[in-house]
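[09:14] KT: can someone run the structure on this one? pasting the chain below
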Amino acid sequence: MTNPVQNVQVKLLQHADRNSIPLEMSIELTHHCNFRCQHCYIPDFSAPDLLTTERVCSLLDELAEMGTLYLTLTGGEMLLRKDWYEIACYARNLGFSLRLFSNGSTITKDVADKIKSLYAIAEVSLYSMDEEIFEKITQHKGSFKKTIRGIELLREREIELLLKVPLMVFNAEGFEKVFEYGRAIGATVHADPRIIAKKDGDLSTLKLNAGTEALLPYYRSGHTPCSVDESGADDPRFDGPLCAAGNRYANITSSGDVRACNLLVPVAGNVREQSFREIWEESEWLKQIRSIRRKDLHTCDTCPKISYCGRCYAQAHLEDGDMMGPSSSACSFAEVVELIQIENGAASA
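[09:31] RB: done, structure tokens below
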């Protein structure tokens, strides 16, 4: 039986894609962070925060007028920015569905109370339940206990919480304990088996990818659907946008740069120099991104695995130098999904 709520959501996303409505937006309030996570895509934690409180709030007014519903405030560590609560309150009063990304370590009782008042969803990265492994990733002594304390403060206030587990060479074996912890405290847990390159094109983080064999227990665990895309993109006749980037989603950095997504280069414009509407509607780069269709993917177009490979323009460009070509990580992911599907089919036969 189809879920009517999911059907409405799919139709909403498709409408936003086809009409270039910036339905989903993320704003990086700061690049500053007290962790130095080895896999982080931010290349420079010392980059200044160039968007004033006033400009961020006027930007939120623009987004509300243009139809944005889902807003993510992130960083760096967004809670290090002193005006984060003022900005979040302004966003909430405009009616956005609000998500706050944090590493959890700076959450105090006062901060947790403020998050509670926002009716926001909090997302915290929890790399491992093993303190040594966790701090090997964050490269910050004491980070594990601080993060766990922040998580507990959020759950004590019954704040909706998503724990995120980027899987890599350090923690691929311990993912199940994070899921068990999430169930115990009433939090949702989501693991991501792919590590991405840095925003400036530095590929050094890719060496942290755990690899197919190490990740097979995760794929077999039932925590990931390992199923085909149901959006219709697997149909060769599909002629809609293949990605949210630049169609219904954009990322704005702490310096004001507008990107089609967090990784895709070049920059479309800067909101310190133009309105977001001008950039969104007039950028030739965004128009180019929006024009891409499945037929433009010179290799992937005829690949039978395109419906579940999870290919990404930015990753294809960063990993293999061709935005229209295959992404090495997506191809590896597709092989795993296919293997699990074969296993599941054999088991049910």
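[09:33] KT: thanks! The mean pLDDT is 90.
[09:34] RB: yep, looked fine to me
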